[in-house]
Amino acid sequence: MPDLRSIQTEADACYLYGKLAEHEEDPQVADIFREMSSIEKGHAEAFLKKINLPPEKMPAPSFRARTLNRIGKLFGYDYVLGILMDTEKSLSNSILTVKKKSKMPVTGSETNHVKVLRNIIENSSVSGSTIARFETRHRSVGGNALRAAVLGGNDGLVSNFSLVMGVAGATSGQEGVLLAGLAGLLAGALSMALGEWISVKSSQELYENQMEIEMEELQTSPENEMKELELIYKAKGIPEEQAREMASEILKDPEHAHELLVKEELGINAEELKGSAFEAALYSFFLFAIGAIIPVFPFMFLTGTNAILLSAGASAVGLFIIGSAITLFTGKSIWFSGFRQVVFGLAAAAITFGIGKLIGVSVAG
Fold first, then answer.
1. What pTM did the predictor assign?
2. What is the predicted pLDDT for the residue at 140?
3. Which of 80, 148, 161, 199 is a good FRET partner for 12, with 20 to 30 A between their CA atoms?
4. Could you give the percent of the chain with pLDDT greater than 70?
């Protein structure tokens, strides 16, 4: 039996897909979003009917949905689509988990929300070039970028808050705390940036090497690569003779054959290799620094207990905001997620403060 929360989720999805349609410049893609909105509305109305409520009782968009719409207006609606798709994947995974634990049969319909967008694309008159552009635009943006921003800020805030409180406990909040906090901010931000640079660069180099090997194989052993292409098409349900003809035709254009093999055999999207490792490093540096400056700021103009209390208060507010932002992805209660983040952050800071106090007393003694 559907509950009000499920109905709200469907109503929010209907609203957000409608907003995506309104702000999409490509009319074909806008039609896809309108169809998605209509499907989600149909789901919500079906849920209402199951609990004996008329369609007029459809709930208004939630605060979360309206916030996502504001984010779309400010930063672009690709972000909103990314979060929507992430939400639907999470819901599908939750349904599958519950069914497996309850030993209920998995029918394949559990992932329909995730599949429906592709089904609409494949069954519509959208051109191949539009599909390619659509997939390129929306595959790696949106939820991932916003999640990285939230988690980067959280890492900076929690780690530096704990460091600052540890030093404050040992020194009673005197001048050394500011130096330690700024050093922690710089060290942490540089570490995050270097880690992101290495991650992106190593992935690019690995994929580029694999692509080079694939090109060498295509040049030195085209007959084997043709067999691979044939197998790929057969795996998609294409008859053997037709698959052989398609593979033979594609091999006439080595560049296209290489692109297809890289995508289908290696699972590499060439568009994703164009990202800059340097830009990713800068992004991580600033996100971490934004969170890390919050607990340090009060010590720039105060010392002692007043600085410690203001730092804890400012950090608690920052933790609550981060916890609330996480609900954009999880759909949980803002108050629950916000206060949970505050409790965990303050607990970590309290532990390091206590340890610092013990160390300070020990050194002083």
1. 0.61
2. 43
3. 148
4. 70
Would you say 2 and 50 are in contact if contact means Cβ atoms under 8 Å apart?
yes
192-229 burial, b at 16+ Cβ within 10 Å, e below that, comes to bbeebbeebeeebeebeeebeebbebbeeeeeebbebb
Dihedral-angle region of residue 76 (phi above 0 means left; psi in -120 to 50 means alpha; beta otherwise): left
| Residue 138: pLDDT band with limits 50, 70, 90 | very low
Q: How many residues does the chain have?
A: 365
Amino acid at 193: A
The proportion of the chain whose per-residue pLDDT surpasses 90, expressed as a percent, equals 23
From CA 158, how far away is CA 199, in angstroms rounded?
Answer: 23
Render pLDDT for 4-48 as a digit per residue (tens, 0 to 9).
777 888 888 889 989 988 988 878 778 878 888 888 888 888 888
Q: What is the C-alpha to C-alpha distance for residues 83 and 11, in angstroms, rounded to an integer?
A: 15
Closest by Cα among 33, 35, 44, 57 to 11: 44
- Of the candidates 3, 256, 36, the one whose C-alpha atom is nearest the C-alpha of residue 128 is 256
Q: Which candidate, 363, 358, 352, places its Cα nearest to that of 163?
A: 352
Question: Do 39 and 11 contact (CB within 8 A), yes or no?
Answer: no
Contact 55, 105 (CB under 8 A): no
The single residue listed with the structure tokens 């400012």 is 314
The residue that leads in pLDDT, 144 or 55, is 55
314 neighbors 342 (Cβ within 8 angstroms): no
- Which stretches within the chain are classed as H helix? 4-22, 27-50, 63-75, 78-101, 112-123, 128-138, 143-171, 176-220, 222-235, 240-250, 254-264, 277-296, 304-330, 334-364
Residue 131 has pLDDT above 80, yes or no: no
